[in-house]
């Protein structure tokens, strides 16, 4: 068999394995939500009521929640973090296929999250005296999904370009950002715990599967159609 085809098959296999590992718990969670599994529903409701009660009782914290909701909007994350870093990697470091991978992954994640919302069709939390009005379906959380995707993509994008210390800092900052975003969705009354959990699973899992499929890929050139290794 052609070595290039063997290498491509291995990359595809890696990507599928990663995708299946993430898809199984995500599908199970979606099933429990769709069938309104009582222990999960009770946990979700108890947490959302407690979180929103705390937000209403603390005006300064409520201002923080509303501000974080705005700055962590999916389009904000893409426009002010994902896109600039991708363009820097493309034009500043001349790693075009790496930048294309990042842009394609972020776009795919946005679309897949939207499709899942339509499939599960979970209503938003119903709360007396809500913190804010939130339209659309609830599962998975779009904020959690897209923040997890953008943060993970950015870390992987620049991973080979920085040293160990910076890598650890990026992972730490990224994890804190995603956790705060997930908590914000609960305190804002916008999503249940299972919604943001599904969002993080989808966001990080999709990015990992996509990167596993990308890693080692390089488009063939007229002078070397068998060259391996991503840029």
Automatic annotation (TrEMBL):
InterPro entries, alphabetized: PAP2/HPO, PAP2/HPO_sf
Domain Phosphatidic acid phosphatase type 2/haloperoxidase positions: 99-211
Molecular functions per Gene Ontology: sphingosine-1-phosphate phosphatase activity
Top-rank lineage group of the source organism: Bacteria
UniProt keywords, alphabetically: Membrane, Transmembrane, Transmembrane helix
SUPFAM superfamilies per the UniProt record, alphabetical: Acid phosphatase/Vanadium-dependent haloperoxidase
Stretches that traverse the bilayer: 12-33, 75-92, 99-120, 144-162, 169-190, 196-217
Pfam families to which the protein is assigned, alphabetical: PAP2
Name the record gives this protein: Undecaprenyl-diphosphatase
Gene source species: Kribbella steppae
